[in-house]
Amino acid sequence: xxxxxxxKPVYLVNPELVVRYEGGATxxxxxxxxxxSRSTIRRTLIKAGVAMRPRSVKGPRDQKREDxxxxxxRDGMKYVDIGIIMGIxxxxxxxxxxxxxxxxxxxxAQ
Length: 110
Hints:
Elements: E1 2-3, E2 6-7, H1 15-22, H2 27-34, H3 38-47, H4 63-74, H5 79-86, H6 90-99
Antiparallel strand pairs: 1-2
């Protein structure tokens, strides 16, 4: 276990971490349970020889939800207010509104 006169570190893995991951728990769930960062949890599982699942792929957009956001925007609501109602950030509201071809222009001073 020596390399260049130094002991190689031994990684101790909590068996419950492995069992929960192999049982279907997500890295995000394990991050909360074991109070560690997602990258540390992932690295620990890899060093323990656990086969990692592919990262999740975003599902299709919920067009009804986007239409509702755009309707609120057309009715004059602000990005931040729509975000509060919908439970998303104002930046996400802006992205959805822009993606659907809507813009809010400030009137120019004359």
